[in-house]
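Re: [ENG-882] Designed sequences occasionally contain unexpected residues at chain ends

Forwarding the minimal case from QA. Structure tokens:
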């Protein structure tokens, strides 16, 4: 039997790990002092262990540890110094601060954001557009503040709320903040440097804050959201709709909304209100914005793009094991969520390098089965049919297949 031409010296998981610059981990570790009194299970070893668990879909520490053991000597090709025990991983999840993993994620975003940005997703305005929203990850224990109403049994589930600012062109979160599930969404946009001048935030009406909108007007920060049902707007001017405006744009107006400042005085902030009729739902939507230089139709279309962040949340929850956690404390849960975001970033980067179009869920499913296969990721996923034909052509007898597998994967 002839030897396969697709053999490569590094498993796919190793190729993924190589995307993480060692200087990023070492700098984050030094800044957070996360390797203090650490003998073997360093921040980097902790990171790749958790990354393996998240990407392979392990549902418990036992499964994670046993999975690494099952690959034997192959793990040395993936920069594992040794096989960590469950107790070692559990202790590290409890003691090593999640902040070092947050720093690593932010550094990876900074490094790879230009590569992930897709010019085809340009929203045809001269400003950078982001979607802002949050998703709640339910926990089986009230580790974080509980979610929802009290159950009849008296027991309540815990929950962690992940607030995210999504880069619409790159498809990854560039700002992330985790809180108790009971914290209101609007608290996120009050954090320092969440929005910068000449940026546009797409967000639902839970984030409406007229005082903040007034500050954004003065700072050249823009937004598109929905008007609250109980809003008491004051009409300033009806803006003329152009003849080419679609019929589903019902109204374009300049309005004023009031809020009380710190001294109790009523302050008015001038904004724009665009009314849009959704024919299929037979419902009118009222969009609030401070973008006055765009057509009314563009405002409605911009808000529709906000749905991309809901797709992102669905992608993360469906493809990574966030219904099971490797620890029962806040730090362990935070670590797993940050590593999950890293996995999303790295796999998105690898997916972008492919010429063949893959659905993210299909890519993850096949990737999990070949994490330790010694093939080039791009060649393998771009030329799947070629791999199958090559195998069929050269498979030989069962004895020869066993020998070949021993050479390539043993």
């Amino acid at each position: 039997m002839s030897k396969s031409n697709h053999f490569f010296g590094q498993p796919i998981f190793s190729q993924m790990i190589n995307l993480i610059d060692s200087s990023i981990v070492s700098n984050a570790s030094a800044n957070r002092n996360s390797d203090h009194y650490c003998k073997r299970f360093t921040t980097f070893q902790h990171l790749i262990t958790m990354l393996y668990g998240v990407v392979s879909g392990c549902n418990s520490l036992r499964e994670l540890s046993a999975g690494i053991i099952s690959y034997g000597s192959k793990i040395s090709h993936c920069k594992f110094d040794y096989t960590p025990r469950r107790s070692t991983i559990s202790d590290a999840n409890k003691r090593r601060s999640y902040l070092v993993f947050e720093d690593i994620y932010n550094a990876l975003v900074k490094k790879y954001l230009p590569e992930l940005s897709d010019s085809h997703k340009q929203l045809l305005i001269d400003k950078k557009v982001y979607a802002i929203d949050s998703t709640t990850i339910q926990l089986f224990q009230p580790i974080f503040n509980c979610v929802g109403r009290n159950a009849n049994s008296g027991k309540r589930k815990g929950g962690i709320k992940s607030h995210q600012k999504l880069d619409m062109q790159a498809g990854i979160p560039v700002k992330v903040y985790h809180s108790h599930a009971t914290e209101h969404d609007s608290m996120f946009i009050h954090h320092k440097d969440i929005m910068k001048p000449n940026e546009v935030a797409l967000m639902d009406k839970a984030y409406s804050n007229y005082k903040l909108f007034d500050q954004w007007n003065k700072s050249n920060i823009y937004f598109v959201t929905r008007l609250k049902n109980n809003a008491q707007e004051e009409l300033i001017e009806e803006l003329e709709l152009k003849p080419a405006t679609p019929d589903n744009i019902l109204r374009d107006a300049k309005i004023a909304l009031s809020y009380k400042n710190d001294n109790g005085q009523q302050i008015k902030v001038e904004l724009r209100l665009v009314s849009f009729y959704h024919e299929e739902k037979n419902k009118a939507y009222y969009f609030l914005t401070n973008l006055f230089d765009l057509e009314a139709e563009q405002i409605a279309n911009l808000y529709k793009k906000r749905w991309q962040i809901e797709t992102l949340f669905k992608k993360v929850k469906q493809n990574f094991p966030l219904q099971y956690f490797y620890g029962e404390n806040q730090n362990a849960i935070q670590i797993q969520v940050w590593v999950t975001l890293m996995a999303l970033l790295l796999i998105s980067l690898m997916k972008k390098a492919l010429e063949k179009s893959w659905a993210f869920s299909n890519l993850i499913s096949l990737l999990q089965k070949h994490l330790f296969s010694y093939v080039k990721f791009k060649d393998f996923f771009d030329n799947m049919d070629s791999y199958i034909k090559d195998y069929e052509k050269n498979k030989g007898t069962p004895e020869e297949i066993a020998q070949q597998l021993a050479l390539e994967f043993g």
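QA comment: On inspection the terminal residues look reasonable. Strands lie at 128-139, 158-167, 173-180, 199-202, 222-226, 234-238, 249-260, 266-278, 283-289. Proposing we downgrade this to a documentation issue.
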